[in-house]
Amino acid sequence: MEHKSYTLFDPQGNVLYEGDQQVRASGGMYIVLTEKDPLGEGQREIAYHRTDGTLVQALPAHSWAFINGFYDGVSQVYRAEYDDVLVGQGEGVGYSYSTGSYQIGEVDAAGNIEWHEDPLYTRYLERAEEEYQSAVEEAAGGEDGFANIAGTDSYYTRLPLSTVNHGYYAAGTFEYDAGWITMCTDTYEILGECDFYHAEPDAEKGFVYSEDYFDEQNSFRSFYHDGAYFYNYGSNMVWTVGERDVLVDFALYPGMDTETADNRIVKAVYDRIYMSDENYWLVQDGESWGYIDHDGQESAMFEDASGFCHGYALVGEEGTAYLIDETFEKVQDLGEADSVSTIGELFVVTRGDTKYFYRLVQ
């Protein structure tokens, strides 16, 4: 992107898309998120295209929508229709809550969509009904026969921040100070929830929940993402809390909510943590680079290291680059190196001002 202009290339250098709308490539397709209304009335569209430009599916996008990439052949979208209504008027109860339809859709590569009810909205309706019935009982038992109850707040939409990845997807909202992050299952049930903006950094434990911690800078907190969607791996996520990355796993404390969030979901804390589909995840700790397993346990550390790709990675020691396997044994000497990294499925060795690209040969 340059000056709000996007250009998407295929591996041969052909231009797949060029324009001023957000675009991402994922799952053998490219996805365009279009602001149809330049006056800012919130009309947006998300469109799925094959790489030859053929439009597969286009549908309205929520005003806060992200581009969710494909995982296991499915990409997630969201739609909402809602209205605020007064419930119980005339029955001695002044109580209202939001009603409507909030649904998550699964789009496949053929453009077919399967819709599911948003589990967070379903839970919201259940709580609202319970509070409404409580207000009715209060009115019936009161001396004046009236319960002046304001009701629950309007429903804050929790958009899917990712497509289902290994059985789970993350959802959340960043409206105002409502920094809720929720982990949901692929059967559209809630695993756990946290008020992320109130997660206070702690040098030893990763974070502690604090009502007093929220401040304006928390709205800039970030998550690990791969350019197509915010990244979770199963029930795991990486949060940037303070100046460090925290690996959290909602499955360690199922049922966690914004009132009970604490350090029991923390697996590891490093300067940087990079998740992927590989068996070991790349981490940075000060000047060192290395790997942790999916339990957050440190497996090996080196002077420099790249992420794994197809079971192999690059490490740098004393100015030399080595290819290693998942036992962390050196299997090939790649010579002098100032640094090592990966780009897609390419291994990169930097020597001075030149980068050398290597591809695995099976």
Instruction: Describe the largest sheet.
Output: 4 strands, antiparallel
Which word captures the global form? globular
Low-confidence blocks of residues: none
As a percent range, the share of strand residues is over 45%
Mean pLDDT across the residues is 84
Ends distance? 35 Å
Q: Percent helix among the residues?
A: under 10%
Our count of helices gives 1
Instruction: Find the structural class using helix and strand composition.
Output: mainly beta
How many β-strands, per DSSP?
30
Side by side, the strands of the main sheet go: 3-4-5-6
Query: What is the rounded Rg?
Result: 24 Å
Which short descriptors sum up this protein?
362 residues, globular, 1 helix, four-stranded antiparallel sheet, mainly beta
Protein model, in words:
The structure is a single chain. This protein has 362 residues and is mainly beta. The protein is 6% helix and 47% strand. The protein contains 1 helix and 30 strands. It has a 4-stranded antiparallel beta sheet with strand order 3-4-5-6, with no helix packed on it. β14 and β15 form a beta hairpin. The longest helix is centred in the middle third of the chain and has 23 residues. The radius of gyration is 24 Å and the shape is globular. The two termini are 35 Å apart. The model has no long low-confidence stretch (mean pLDDT 84).
Topology overview:
Layout (H helix, E strand, L loop, with lengths): L5 E4 L5 E5 L2 E5 L2 E7 L8 E7 L4 E7 L12 E14 L7 E14 L4 E5 L1 H23 L17 E2 L7 E6 L6 E6 L4 E6 L3 E4 L3 E4 L22 E2 L2 E6 L2 E6 L16 E5 L1 E3 L6 E5 L2 E5 L5 E5 L1 E2 L7 E5 L2 E5 L5 E7 L2 E5 L2 E6 L2 E6 L3
